[in-house]
Write a structure and sequence with these properties.
alpha+beta; three-stranded antiparallel sheet; 5 helices; globular
Amino acid sequence: DGPNHWRHRKDILVESIRRHAPDIIGTQECLEFQAAYIAEKLPEYRWIGIGRDPGGKGEMTAILYKKSVLVPIECRHFWLSETPDAPSSKSWDSSLTRITTHVRFHHAATGKFIHCFNTHFDHRGEEARIRSAELMVEQASAIPPDAPVIFIGDFNAAAETSRPWAVFQEAGYQDAWLAAEHREGPPVTWGAFKAPDPEGNRIDWILFRGPLSVRHAETVLYNEDGRYPSDHYPVTAKFVLLETS
């Protein structure tokens, strides 16, 4: 990343997290030392993840969570392929191995269980993105409808116009950006370490189903002297857990 190397922006990234203080964070292209650094600087968080490459090495879709708010009860990883339980597997026209992290959390304050899936779709393979969306819907299909499910990710596809986005909509998932009572920031999420391009797309989504409502959604443009925490803008959503009968 040259002038945007991790060492130049790691504390900007930590500060962007500190300012918003989310209960759950989904990361993409996260390496182990980066997750460890965030947890070191923000000890209220713990993290779960495994590398997508052979031996559990390489990039993770690590999930960080506030340990005072959530307790991970179950965790699994599956690969975006025709053999999702085969580590490091790759299918379709995917250019790289891709992985999803799924954690079932217990929310101590309400006693409810929340399922969170964090993923990163392929940046080149159109079929791979569509099949990956179908796979994620299938992987979550056994979760009871009254249990909150949240999908977080860099989907590498434009919201509202792409087939992968439509797959989720057809399966009953809502887009937090569209469902939010209030929105802040631009509908653009890839920035290449620069200010937003008004012609850009919203390729990073937070999707959900179940007893949830969205108070606020934001594309975060926090930067320090023009240096951004990532080549994508963080996206946030503030959810409210609804009562169920």
